Amino acid sequence: MRSVDVTADTPVLAGAHAPALPADWRDYVALLKPRVMSLVVFTGLCGLLAAPASIHPVLAFTAILCIAVGAGAAGALNQWYEIDLDSAMKRTANRPLPAGRMDPGSALAFGVTLSVASVAVMYLAVNTVAALLLLASILFYVFVYTVWLKRRTPQNIVIGGAAGAFPPMIGWAAAAGDVTLLPVLLFAIIFLWTPPHFWALALFVRTDYAKAGVPMLPVIAGNRETRRQVLLYTPPLVAVSVAPWALGLAGAVYGVAASALGAVFLGLAIAVYRNRAADPAQMAPERRLFAFSILYLFALFAALVVDRWVLA
Questions:
Q1: For position 15, what pLDDT does the model report?
Q2: What angle do CA 239, 245, 250 make, to 5 degrees?
Q3: Does 205 lie in the same domain as 156?
């Protein structure tokens, strides 16, 4: 599929004609994208707990804190760069920067400071492997996804999904000091989960993305092709999610959970594929898949921890 350069790389600052209002602590918290951070922290924690190595509770807390701060820093830098996009989209227009509650310089300094601090503390307090993976995840999200991919190609989510797939590997590396097959499979699960998760959302907020000039798949290829891609990505996702059990890296509890959750995901993806509605109000299958996809990832990773700890 042809790449599309929808807009210039340099963001246009919304409300640049007026000074920003004084930001309070809630605006700084909003910059961290706390809802996204919660999933990042959870998968990172599960990776740490699934690792076959013990780690001191203080170091474990430090590692998870660094993952959270690093993810928040990437979110802040993403919002700094995308002020123009956030201003044009209804669901993001009230974020601190497009709403004029914070000046861009403060957001940039906040994001850079947290990025450096999270990687430095991970390196000094935990280990080099975890620090390098954390650095890679921040750089990938900011430069590969935000700066390079998002405005250029409808494959932005496919390639950019790697940024959100790092946390379980980082958590594992924090405990074990290395990366083996299981954390790679956990990375692959999130990588394959990201496109159907975000495309389900993009289908019923397509107008927002089109207005902002973001070349998400529904905007460029249409709803029908997007629904087909959602379905095409689901079987590989289910297969990879079951792989830890099939390869003997996880037990039956995880295997049964992965199989059941995968069956539900596939059923919802089929319902999305069969839907032909163009009106967002008639996109109940897409909304159900998007909501379930979040539960799916939480439940899948929780099942892995239960399997390896509670029933070991």
A1: 44
A2: 140
A3: no
Other CB atoms within a 10 A radius of the CB of residue 47 amount to: 31
Give CA–CA dist 123/126, Å, rounded. Answer: 6
Measured on CA atoms in the order 3, 4, 9, 11, is the torsion positive or negative?
negative
Does one domain contain both 187 and 155?
Answer: no
Examine the domain organization and report whether 139 and 98 are in the same domain. Answer: yes
pLDDT less than 50: residues of the chain: 1-18
pLDDT at 42: 96
The conformational region for residue 222 under phi > 0 = left, psi -120 to 50 = alpha, else beta, is left
Q: Which two tokens stand for residue 147?
A: 């700066």
Q: Per the domain annotation, does 290 fall within a domain?
A: yes
Contact (Cβ atoms closer than 8 angstroms) between residue 144 and residue 163: yes
If phi > 0 it is left, if psi is from -120 to 50 it is alpha, else beta; for residue 55 that is: beta
- What pLDDT is recorded for position 312? 58
Take residue 309 and report the two structure tokens written for it: 């700890």
Q: State residue 294's pLDDT score.
A: 95
239 in a domain, yes or no? Answer: yes
Return d(Cα 70, Cα 62) in angstroms, integer: 12
Based on the fold, state whether residues 220 and 170 are members of the same structural domain: no
What does the pLDDT read at residue 212? 83
What is the reported pLDDT for 311? 62
Kindly state whether residues 98 and 173 are assigned to the same domain.
Answer: yes
Count the domains in the chain.
Answer: 2
pTM: 0.89
Q: Residue 74: what pLDDT? A: 95
Regarding whether 152 and 69 lie in a shared domain, the answer is yes
How far is the C-alpha of 272 from the C-alpha of 224, rounded, in Å?
10
Q: Is 116 exposed, middle or buried (0-12, 13-18, 19+ CB in 10 A)?
A: middle
Q: Which residue has the tokens 């660094």?
A: 66
Q: Is the domain of 152 the same as that of 187?
A: no
Task: Report the distance separating Cα 33 and Cα 72, nearest Å.
Answer: 6
- What's the confidence (pLDDT) of residue 208? 85
Residues 99 and 163 in one domain: yes
